[in-house]
């Protein structure tokens, strides 16, 4: 789905040099590389504080731990998403409450958030899905009205800009009380292993998150809270510094791939190309179609026979999973689980590859 090897070969000299520098320094945990990357990411997103950690799920856990929510508190998040938010809620004794999403953007629908608010609700976790921001202007207004925290899950949309009604723009991940991201290798900003970060403009929260990520230590051997051990190592930070320096270029390349896909698929009745929200720029972490009246699994099998990978993000609503099962019914979420199909997306796709994929896909769905 993502050709990481071609991307590595393009920046091999810079990446090898960065890795070699860390190996020569023998500073593998913390140190200058981690601090330097944190500062560069802070400036790129436009926040006051970045605390790196072991992965994106740890980042979500740290963010929720820092808020000290009472056990049993409800946290509203999207029903159409990966399990990480719900998972950390359950681990912390909180209750994930799923809200339906927008049929166009795939992102959480603010109107559905309001329907789910109860006296136990303490936080909202909007997940910026597939590459564009949720409607943060409306979501933050809802949060202010009900005195709720907002944690942005920005793992899939780093680099996207949210556009306010007055024309102001802010990077996704800079608007809520806290935001989190993942540096999983396939992300738009990915390392060569696991990694994540928590971002905030709140100085007190930043101090607390940093302490919680380091065994609850305010200083070495002084444990002021129950924490966890979650850190980004220096090798990954050195790789991320190289990739962050070219992230905007990566995003433009992804947009060009999406444009080629759109041109090939536009007008085909059985599929719908990704919707471009006027309130957000799109960084195309995924290129996800909606497919109607066709068997998606058969399409995937035929694509695979031709050497073309594809994925379904996500095939089953979280509230129908064994761990999170409930009687909830979210019609848009369920419709999307039955209709979405993602095609390969990356920074190093050639025109020939895109043409092959689009031609084969159209042939499979019997559209000449």
Could you list some keywords that capture this structure?
three-stranded antiparallel sheet; globular; alpha/beta; 14 strands; 368 residues; 39% helix; 13 helices; single chain
Q: Supply the number of helical segments.
A: 13
Strand order of the largest sheet: 1-9-8-5-4-2-3
Evaluate the radius of gyration.
Answer: 21 Å
Cα separation of the termini: 24 Å
Give unreliable regions as ranges. Answer: none
**What is the residue-averaged pLDDT?**
97
Biggest sheet descriptor:
7 strands, mixed
Descriptive overview:
By secondary structure, this protein is of the alpha/beta class. The protein is built from 13 helices and 14 strands. The strands form 4 sheets. It has a 7-stranded mixed sheet, sandwiched between helices. The longest helix has 19 residues, at 247-265. The radius of gyration is 21 Å and the shape is globular.
Give a concise summary.
The protein has 368 residues and is an alpha/beta fold. The protein has helices at residues 4-10, 12-25, 32-45, 56-67, 84-91, 110-116, 136-146, 203-212, 234-245, 247-265, 296-305, 331-337, 351-364; strands at 49-53, 74-78, 95-99, 121-125, 149-153, 161-163, 169-171, 178-182, 196-200, 217-219, 222-223, 271-272, 287-291, 340-343. Helix 3 (32-45) packs parallel to helix 9 (234-245).
Helix and strand arrangement:
Blueprint: H1 4-10, H2 12-25, H3 32-45, E1 49-53, H4 56-67, E2 74-78, H5 84-91, E3 95-99, H6 110-116, E4 121-125, H7 136-146, E5 149-153, E6 161-163, E7 169-171, E8 178-182, E9 196-200, H8 203-212, E10 217-219, E11 222-223, H9 234-245, H10 247-265, E12 271-272, E13 287-291, H11 296-305, H12 331-337, E14 340-343, H13 351-364
Parallel strand pairs: 2-3, 2-4, 4-5, 5-8
Antiparallel strand pairs: 1-9, 6-7, 8-9, 10-11, 12-13, 13-14
């Amino acid at each position: 789905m993502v050709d990481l090897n071609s991307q590595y070969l393009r920046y091999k000299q810079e990446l090898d040099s960065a890795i070699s520098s860390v190996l020569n320094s023998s500073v593998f945990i913390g140190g200058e590389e981690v601090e330097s990357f944190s500062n560069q990411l802070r400036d790129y997103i436009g926040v006051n504080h970045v605390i790196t950690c072991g992965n994106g799920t740890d980042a979500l856990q740290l963010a929720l731990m820092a808020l000290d929510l009472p056990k049993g508190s409800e946290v509203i998040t999207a029903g159409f998403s990966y399990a990480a938010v719900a998972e950390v809620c359950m681990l912390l004794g909180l209750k994930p409450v799923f809200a339906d999403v927008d049929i166009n953007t795939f992102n959480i629908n603010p109107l559905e958030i309001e329907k789910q608010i109860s006296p136990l609700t303490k936080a909202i976790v909007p997940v910026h899905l597939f590459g564009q921001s949720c409607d943060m202007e409306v979501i933050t207004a809802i949060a202010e009205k009900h005195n709720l925290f907002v944690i942005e899950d920005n793992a899939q949309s780093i680099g996207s800009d949210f556009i306010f009604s007055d024309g102001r723009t802010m990077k996704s991940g800079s608007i809520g009380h806290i935001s989190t991201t993942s540096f999983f290798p396939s992300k738009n900003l990915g390392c060569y292993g696991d990694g994540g970060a928590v971002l905030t403009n709140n100085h007190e929260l930043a101090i607390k998150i940093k302490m919680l990520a380091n065994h609850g230590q305010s200083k070495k051997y002084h444990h002021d809270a129950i924490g966890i051990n979650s850190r980004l190592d220096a090798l990954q930070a050195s790789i991320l510094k190289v990739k962050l320096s070219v992230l905007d270029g990566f995003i433009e390349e992804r947009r060009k791939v999406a444009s080629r896909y759109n041109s090939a698929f536009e007008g085909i009745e059985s599929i719908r190309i990704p919707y471009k929200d006027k309130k957000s720029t799109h960084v195309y972490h995924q290129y996800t179609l909606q497919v109607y009246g066709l068997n998606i699994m058969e399409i995937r099998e035929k694509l695979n026979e031709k050497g073309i990978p594809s994925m379904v993000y996500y095939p089953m609503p979280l509230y129908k999973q064994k761990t999170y099962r409930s009687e909830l019914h979210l019609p848009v979420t369920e419709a999307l689980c039955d209709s979405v199909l993602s095609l390969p997306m990356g920074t190093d796709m050639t025109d020939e590859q895109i043409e092959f994929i689009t031609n084969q896909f159209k042939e499979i769905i019997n559209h000449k």
